[in-house]
Amino acid sequence: MTVSPHAPGRPTSLRQLILRGSLPMALIALSLALTLGVLHVRAVDAEAHAMARIQAAGLAAAFAGRPNDDAMTNALTLALAQSAPTGRAILHRRHATDLAVDSGRHLDPRHTLHTWTPTPQGELETLVDASALHDRHVAGLAMTLLLCAGITTAFLIGRRDLERSLIEPIENVRSRIDRFLHPRGSQADGDDDTLQAIDGLLDELVELRRRHDAAMAEALRRRLQEIARQTRFVEQIGDHFRQPLQALALFVAGMQPGDDLRQRAVVGQMRTSITRLNELLDGVLELARFDAGAVEPAPSTVVASDVFVRGRAAIESDADRLGVEVRWRGGRLPLHTDPVLFAELLQRLVVNAVLSTPHGRVLVAVRRRGDAIRLEVRDNGMGLDPDIQARVFEEFTRLPGHPGYGLGLAVARRIADTLGGNIGVRSRPGRGTLFWVQLDGAASGPPTRATAALRSHSAF
């Protein structure tokens, strides 16, 4: 089972998750906007009250020390004319009538600010025009509302953009998984809960992967059993065929034809036939071993010169007999591959080149290409026709002038496949032939100047 991306009791739809993630930020922004508006209103009120108190103190100082009511009235009138926006001043006295002075400015009763200031003559009441304060309140409220509206609009637009940016790709992923699991008809198209639908599809994928792994394990087990069975079959076939051939070879070796020339010729043909039958049996059994998967490479680090030594020993007699000069290049190059299989592959390619080039020359070169190793066996012999090149690695394809049954290059191709490489041929009739094998990842150690300096030789 997969782990659900949502915990029990939490929002289960993507829209709810987006709302849950973005709503707190919007609420915080709205709270900050409202707080800013309240602070603005309080600051404006405090400023207006401070101004009114300052003007009231100035009016009180204007009539202080006046000897009679007329002098106090004139002083208040003069000071009130210079104290806009204060429009009216009333001096409330304990033992006399109140003294009221009006500046003549219009005062709206709904927008009037009253202040009370104690003086030696009594308590001074001032009425201040608060229309400007009201306008500032309205402007602050409008600013706060616009700010809240902007935050709300940004929240809605951001939420819609998040839904478009997140839900649509997730829906596409869900649809692709759904089409993969249900190619004949989706089973999750009617489900509005995208996360739960994806969760269910992931459960199906996990179950499908589990069944696939189980099927692959069973197939591997059967393949291993089949390889073991084929290996035993090949070994039994080899034993059953080799014993009669060995017995026949002993019988022929014990025959004494005497002086009869015809009998000697027959015995010689029998010995040659038995030898060729043994060679055919060896080739067929080796092909069967590779085809059955019974050959497992054992890579190790080896120097190319060590492999060259084995190759020289295998083809020395044939090269001397045919007058072929063999040159070897790249002997210092380290290789990481199966030395036995690589030596057998080299031997088959070199033997093929020597037999194709009587009284000629053969170049054997091992070169490095990045992390790959390229083996090239080039001769200046008779070359191959295009139709033969197309099937040169097939079984029983005999090359002109070669003895045997045409199994050597077929085995070479199987060795290259077993080592994880590629094999190929390039040839022109009358101009020679190049067989190459490239083994990726077979290079050992960093490249050196010696390997970088190697170049392809096309002439001898």
Can you tag this structure with a few keywords?
five-stranded mixed beta sheet; 460 residues; alpha+beta; rod-shaped; 57% helix
How many DSSP H or I helices? 10
Give the overall pLDDT as a whole number: 81
Q: How are the strands of the biggest sheet laid out side by side? A: 6-8-9-11-10
**Count of DSSP E strands?**
11
List the helices and strands and how they pair.
Layout: H1 14-63, H2 69-81, E1 86-92, E2 99-102, E3 112-119, E4 122-129, H3 131-181, H4 194-254, H5 261-291, E5 300-303, H6 304-322, E6 325-329, E7 334-337, H7 339-355, E8 361-369, E9 372-379, H8 386-390, H9 408-418, E10 421-428, E11 432-439, H10 449-452
Parallel strand pairs: 6-8
Antiparallel strand pairs: 1-2, 1-4, 3-4, 5-7, 8-9, 9-11, 10-11
Helix pairs in contact: 1-2, 1-3, 3-4, 4-5, 5-9, 6-7, 7-9
